[in-house]
Design goal:
Elements: H1 21-51, H2 57-84, H3 93-99, H4 111-138, H5 142-164
Helix pairs in contact: 1-2, 1-3, 1-4, 2-5, 4-5
């Protein structure tokens, strides 16, 4: 969970963007879960990029690199939105592990199991983002809703592409 849902008064100015402190706290708490799921998926995807083997090596190695690069870049956008709402973004493995809905594998799976796990991971991020979207939408927070819509689109597309490899 985000460290504080109180307004960030470090500059001596109260945040006044048309979203209540309570709503900013609730939105930030949900965005923190999206950030945790996104970071966990990023780590898993990068790990699989390093460790994939087998006949699909080149295809998966390149696909995983494309996906983890996009995921890495998105982390900053999510964390900065949390900060724009006046809350500290989670940023430790401990916080991410506590907030994430994604379980990492204990061992290095085979290539097709990597694909299955990444399908589930992308779907998990999309579900977490969809739950956060509902709260942002209810609070009339269009920038967060837009960010979450983009994340859902990307993760649902990634899941579809990965799922296509299993057919």
């Amino acid at each position: 969970m985000a460290k504080s849902s109180k307004a960030d008064n470090t500059a001596g100015t109260r945040i006044n963007i048309g979203i209540s402190d309570k709503d900013r706290g609730a939105i930030s708490a949900e965005l923190s879960k999206v950030l945790a799921d996104s970071y966990t998926l990023y780590l898993m995807t990068h790990n699989f990029h390093w460790n994939v083997t087998g006949p699909l090596f080149n295809t998966l190695h390149l696909m995983f690199m494309t996906q983890y690069t996009e995921e890495w870049n998105a982390l900053d956008d999510i964390a900065e939105r949390i900060r724009a709402l006046g809350v500290h973004a989670p940023g430790t493995y401990r916080e991410f592990a506590k907030l994430s809905s994604i379980s990492e594998p204990q061992n290095v799976p085979d290539a097709l199991e990597m694909v299955r796990l990444l399908v589930k991971g992308n779907e998990a991020v999309s579900k977490t983002a969809r739950a956060a979207f509902s709260i942002a939408d209810d609070a009339n927070d269009q920038p967060t809703a837009d960010l979450l819509t983009q994340r859902m689109d990307i993760h649902e597309k990634n899941a579809w592409m990965l799922r296509s490899l299993l057919e």
